[in-house]
Design brief:
Distance between the termini: 8 Å
Largest sheet: 4 strands, parallel
Radius of gyration: 19 Å
Oligomer: single chain
CATH superfamily of the domain at 42-168: Response regulator
Number of helices: 10
């Protein structure tokens, strides 16, 4: 997973978004500690709630997942809420060629969706939306991470009590250790370390600059978003 503090281009991607929301409970807890009235915006919940409350009002396009996953999500939303799907696409796991990008662009533009749901891993989905936002002419693009896999049944979802208490990372790590160990063990540890530094007043991370609050020497640590 990329970090905006390590990757200036990824920071630009996030800064260009109309809305960036906390998908994990640790970010919610940290935000509340800083005085913000926050709640978790969980990708699967966002997708499901939006479809449940809008029914067939909007035209939906589902982009992401392994072959068959986007179609399964579209079928589920139609069955439950009468959602109108105008297209689906399962991209390869490798970088797209220019010809593939053009093909995807033409397919989505021709479908004329009101909203494109993007179910890729972070930061892949953020980078994809940033690159294609000016090419598609779509009013709304929303990245919902693993929501596609959860709804299609290809990945098991953590039980509610684990999601509500900030333990979803542990559940997912035990089920997909080879894919997620770097995100949750290494980058998660960096994030916890930097939170501790900030809470102890040793260092400040405000998105613009970092100021030492003590005269002690230190090694710069990076925060995992």
């Amino acid at each position: 997973m990329a970090s905006p503090r390590r990757d200036a281009q990824f920071k630009q991607v996030l800064d260009a978004a109309d809305l960036v929301v906390p998908d994990g409970m640790p970010l919610v807890w940290l935000g509340r500690r800083h005085g913000h009235d926050m709640r978790r915006v969980y990708g699967p919940e966002l997708l499901d709630t939006f479809c449940a409350n809008t029914g067939n009002i909007y035209r939906h396009y589902f982009y992401g997942g392994a072959p068959g996953v986007a179609e399964a999500v579209a079928a589920r939303m139609k069955r439950l809420y009468g959602v109108r799907t105008v297209g689906t696409w399962s991209p390869p796991y490798r970088p797209l060629s220019e010809d593939e990008k053009l093909e995807i662009e033409c397919h989505i533009r021709d479908a004329k969706p009101d909203i494109v749901w993007v179910g890729l891993s972070t930061p892949k989905q953020e980078r994809w939306m940033y690159e294609f936002s000016s090419r598609l002419g779509v009013p709304v693009m929303a990245g919902v991470g693993a929501a596609f896999d959860f709804f299609a049944g290809t990945v098991k979802q953590a039980p509610p009590w684990m999601r509500e208490n900030g333990l979803e990372w542990f559940f997912r790590l035990t089920h997909e250790p080879r894919r997620l160990w770097h995100r949750y063990i290494l980058l998660g540890s960096e994030f916890a370390w930097n939170v501790a530094l900030e809470l102890l007043g040793v260092k400040r991370f405000d998105g613009r600059q970092e100021n030492l609050q003590t005269s002690h020497t230190h090694q710069d640590a990076q925060r995992a978003e």
